[in-house]
Design goal:
Helix 3 packs across helix 5, helix 4 runs antiparallel to helix 5 and helix 5 packs across helix 9. The chain folds into two domains: 145 residues, P-loop containing nucleotide triphosphate hydrolases (Rossmann fold, 3-Layer(aba) Sandwich), CATH 3.40.50.300; 163 residues, RecF/RecN/SMC, N-terminal domain (Glutathione S-transferase Yfyf (Class Pi), Chain A, domain 2, Up-down Bundle), CATH 1.20.1050. 43% of the residues lie in helices and 21% in strands. It is an alpha/beta fold. A hairpin with a 2-residue loop joins strand 8 and strand 9. The protein is built from ten helices and 13 strands. Strands 6-10-11-1-12-13 form a six-stranded mixed sheet, with helices on both faces. The protein has a four-stranded antiparallel sheet with strand order 2-3-4-5, with helices on one face.
Amino acid sequence: MLAVGANGAGKTNLLESLHLGTQGFSPRTRSDGELIRFGESAARVRLDGVRGEAELRTDIVLSAAEGKRAEVNGARLRSAEQLRGETVTLVFTPDRLAIVKAGPAARRAYFDRSLGRVLPARAGLPADYAAVLAQRNAALKLGDRPTIAPWTAQLAALGTALVAARTELLGLLAAPFAELAGELGLPAAVLAYEGEPVGEADLEARLDRDLERGATGLGPHLHDVSIAADGRDLRSFGSQGEQRTAVLALLLAEATLLAERRDDAPLLLLDDVLSELDPDRRRILLRQVEGRGQTLITATTADALPGEPAQLLLVSPGAVAVG
């Protein structure tokens, strides 16, 4: 599908509502209040679709007074974020360049979310590690060595498991990422995990320094992922076009993996993805998303897409019409 409209017409809002209705949260903000129209007290997104041969309806309501609630086929979910277990949606927006451009925390967060989608049995590892890290840091601030010891053991075990899971994920992504990036004009693209497992002995060896700082100074909460092409780290030595291509290749690589591992392909939401691609690369992108399931691309004009979309949506302020 191609959604077209002038700048400010609401194309990104349409994309955001689809993400909210399938994943339970916005890709733009974690403040649900920002998703409610000015002057209103609530907002609602209801989606009707098909998963396999079964109908699927999701319904999510945001209320300033009552918070957020979600349903799937009429059944209330404990939390809206459980929608992620029903469907998978991958989104590209211009601000996703932070995956390459920003510091290590942005990359860790991105790949940990990807870990939850590609290796769902280990989806809880990042949160479990973060919880134990917080407990150890709290004990470090108190300076109570006997209290610190059990958290150290747990942190080492969870950290080792998290590094192994992240490394496995990158191993799965590496080949499709390199292939897709190459087709899009980014040669010799490589993903590499930067960090080693930290054992209990390693943490104990620097305990005095951690006590001084009141924080744990070793572990996967400080690791990074290198995204490089042709021997260059794209964070420092990549153009914005190359960084954009790398993020797009990452998304398509994950979509490839998920299509192989799930019964239903992920929904792809590509916001303003065509504006910095030349005609040849636009055709390559179109070929890549064809047959992958449902994809929504936004653009200011229909001729930005080198081909006929399966469906054309005309977006104007407050309205969407089928072209």
